[in-house]
Design goal:
6-stranded mixed β-sheet; globular; alpha/beta; Metallo-beta-lactamase, Chain A; 234 residues
Length: 234
């Protein structure tokens, strides 16, 4: 697992050059944002030890298998570890794939579920230490992004990817089709991207790919590309 310090407070943990989770330093210890692939608990805990601070909580952007892989192991190893997830997404974490009234999208896939139960369900605008939760559905029905209010770093989960240039969730690009294939509702993903742009982040960290400093121009270009595919979403 490769560890990259991105900002004063944020560390990116990357598996196989593809999957990111993050450790965020807070006044009381560390927050893990997403939990990587199955089998990654040992590497995550080794990084926690190197940062010389206790792991206090896990915050999930969404419940896809590559974002919750180490969750159950970490919750079993560390007593009193908090687990936070968006209220809508919590059902998907429990592998309840039923859609709610008015929800429309592709068949839900990539939800393997977890045994761990959330200790707190998050709504839009909830505060978790220095993080502000921002509802950003589209990639999944209950996806959330998180803004570090200290320095305007946006940890966007899969609302954006940067694996092959910055893309909005749901946008199809032949050279990198996965953001489209694994996103539930592309038009809704575009609306969420438009909302996240309004936060004017100084730094963008994503679930897949490298982070981007001063990302506003790149976000604008990604949204323009998304608008060509989902004009009805504007």
């Amino acid at each position: 697992m490769k560890v990259t310090q991105e900002t004063e407070h944020l560390f990116r943990l990357t598996q196989f050059g593809l999957v990111n989770c993050y450790l965020l330093s807070e006044s009381d210890g560390l927050t893990l944002i997403d939990a990587g692939l199955p089998g990654s608990a040992k590497s995550i805990l080794q990084t926690v030890q190197k940062l010389h601070a206790p792991l206090r909580r896990i915050v999930l952007t969404h419940a896809h298998f590559d974002h919750i892989g180490a969750l159950d192991s970490l919750m079993a190893i560390i007593p009193n570890l908090e687990l936070l997830i968006g209220q809508r997404e919590a059902r998907l974490l429990a592998r309840d794939l039923r859609l709610e009234e008015g929800e429309r999208g592709k068949s839900l896939m990539g939800f393997w579920g977890a045994k761990s139960n959330p200790t707190r369900l998050l709504g839009d605008g909830a505060q978790i230490g220095s993080l502000k939760a921002i509802a950003s559905p589209g990639h999944t029905p209950g996806h959330m992004a998180f803004l570090d209010t200290r320095d305007s770093t946006l940890i966007a989960g899969d609302a954006f990817t940067t694996q092959n240039g910055l893309l909005v969730a749901g946008v199809f690009r032949a050279t990198f089709p996965f953001p489209a294939l694994f996103s539930w509702n592309g038009a809704l993903g575009l609306r969420s991207a438009l909302r996240l742009r309004q936060e004017r982040p100084n730094f963008l960290a994503t679930g897949h790919g490298r982070s981007i400093a001063a990302p506003q121009s790149a976000i604008d270009r990604a949204i323009e590309e998304a608008l060509r595919q989902y004009r009805q979403a504007k």
